[in-house]
Amino acid sequence: MIAAVVAVVIPLIFLGIVHRLDLYASGSFRTVLTCMAWGAVAFCAAYLTNNALLRVVSYGLLVTLVAPVVEEVLKSLILV
């Protein structure tokens, strides 16, 4: 439970700093929040996909080759 709180609070603090200092010329804060929300959606989708694929491929293959590709593809879907 503590890990989940820390995993949410630290990115929120970072987003606050990005917004306050307008780092990276982020433009609108809505865009930054949209990207963060999509990251959460991509995480959930990658979790479900990787767990399903774990039944098909070995753990070592999943961790080294499959999971990184799945995660990056899911994160980039918002750009399409």
Taking pLDDT < 50 over at least 5 consecutive residues as the criterion, the unreliable ranges are none
Q: Whole-number radius of gyration?
A: 16 Å
> Helices and strands: which structural class?
mainly alpha
| Order of helix and strand elements from N to C terminus | HHH
CA-CA gap between termini: 34 Å
For the largest beta-sheet, the strand count, sense and barrel status come to: none
What oligomerization state is this entry in? Answer: single chain
The percentage helix is over 70%
Per-chain topology:
Blueprint (H helix, E strand, L loop, with lengths): L1 H20 L7 H25 L5 H18 L4
What does this protein look like?
The protein is 79% helix and 0% strand. Helix 2 runs antiparallel to helix 3. The mean pLDDT is 86. It is mainly α and 80 residues long. It has one domain (2-79). The longest helix is centred in the middle third of the chain and has 25 residues, at 29-53.
